[in-house]
Specification:
It is built from twelve helices and eleven strands. It is an alpha/beta fold and about 350 residues long. The protein folds into two domains: about 170 residues, Rossmann fold (3-Layer(aba) Sandwich); about 170 residues, Dehydroquinate synthase-like - alpha domain (Dehydroquinate synthase-like, alpha domain), CATH 1.20.1090. The protein has a seven-stranded mixed sheet, with helices on both faces. Strands 7-8 form a two-stranded antiparallel ribbon.
């Protein structure tokens, strides 16, 4: 069996492992202990399935496996796509002992997890993320869902996986653009709560972009440790977990305004982090430092042209809004984030207004 690192998301009876290593597919990690019943449905997409679906079978020895391939892309993260998963579960006679296995990036994980949350009021699921963004962010924490025409991730549920299995070898086939988008979330983890990690990324960004296995393994492990710790404190985002959304209020507005899939999630979050840093009122040197790292990563630091009223309309549907009051994740300094409804409204107007 492969050498791997295990991080536990501590949620009492809903606790689960994040397993990180190389050569975990092809039977390199036994998944059967996380599959209580006989039947599994592997949910993947048309890009990932030909690469990894058959390779996953040895990890599920003795189980009955069916699979479904979804269309690839954020624009397909819809109720209609989720319906195809539910239809397959019904067609195969799946029961409450069936396990849904998400094999792919964040879109696959979110849709498959939401289908698992809904089918028979909840069946087990396992995350096997194959993109960097999914490995460091969306596969951990139990957020599942789909987009609505008027906003991102407006329809969904909290549904924790039984396990998250991260085979870092899958990154070898990841396109460079998607690698950079995933690094946006890695940078975010350093920016919100660990300056030392942010500094490590600055020192190792060239190795990360070159897909150095050791550098990627450390970035994934540290990101998962950060996220697991925050989720354990606040599973359903009642307070502290919101800091994981640094840059996302602006970023989701960018994704929505441009059409899902035009800007990758990590690209939109990168520009959104710069906007949030500017709104924070932190030292200009800290904002410049964040910009420089994102630019070295090949990520955008300026949003597209969006009318101020469209910014406000999109951000008004953000899930962090309470009583029609926008709330933002801001920085006291790099490595120190907080969640607040107290922000400089005039400064916000300048930030979104100058982008017209």
């Amino acid at each position: 069996m492969s050498v791997h690192k295990t991080i536990t998301v501590n949620l009492g009876q809903r606790s689960y492992p994040i397993v990180i290593g190389r050569e975990l597919l092809d039977g390199g990690f036994d998944l059967t202990s996380f599959v209580k019943g006989r039947d599994c449905l592997i949910v993947s997409n048309e890009t990932v399935a030909p690469l990894y679906c058959k390779r996953l079978a040895p990890n599920l020895a003795g189980k009955t496996i069916t699979s479904i391939e979804l269309p690839d892309g954020e624009e397909h993260k819809t109720v209609a796509t989720m319906q195809t998963i539910l239809d397959r579960l019904v067609a195969t006679g799946a029961n409450r002992d069936t396990t849904v296995i998400a094999l792919g990036g964040g879109v696959v994980g979110d849709i498959a997890g939401f289908a698992a949350a809904c089918y028979m009021r909840g069946v087990a699921f396992i995350q096997i993320p194959t993109t960097l963004l999914a490995q460091v962010d969306s596969s951990v924490g139990g957020k599942t869902g789909v987009n609505h025409a008027r906003g991102k991730n407006l329809i969904g549920a909290f549904h924790q996986p039984r396990a998250v299995v991260i085979d870092t070898d899958t990154l070898a086939t990841l396109p460079d653009r998607e690698l950079r988008a995933g690094l946006a979330e890695v940078i975010k983890h350093g920016a919100i709560c660990e300056l030392g990690f942010f500094e490590w990324i600055e020192q190792n960004i060239d190795a990360l972009l070159a897909k150095d296995p050791a550098a990627l393994a450390h970035a994934i492990q540290r990101s998962c440790e950060v996220k697991a710790g925050v989720v354990a404190e606040d599973e359903r985002e009642a307070g502290r977990r919101a800091i994981l959304n640094f840059g996302h209020t602006f970023g989701h507005a960018i994704e929505h305004s441009q059409g899902y899939g035009v800007w990758l999630h990590g690209e939109a979050v990168a520009a959104g982090m710069v906007m949030a840093a500017e709104l924070s009122g932190i030292a200009a040197s800290d904002v410049q430092r964040l910009c420089k790292l994102l630019q070295r990563t090949g990520l955008p630091t300026e949003p597209p042209t969006i009318a101020a009223e469209d910014w406000m309309r999109a951000m008004g549907l953000d899930k962090k809004v309470r009583q029609k009051q926008l709330r933002f994740v801001l920085l006291r300094s790099l490595g120190d984030a907080y969640f607040t409804a107290a922000y400089d409204e005039k400064r916000l107007g300048q930030i979104i207004g100058r982008k017209i």
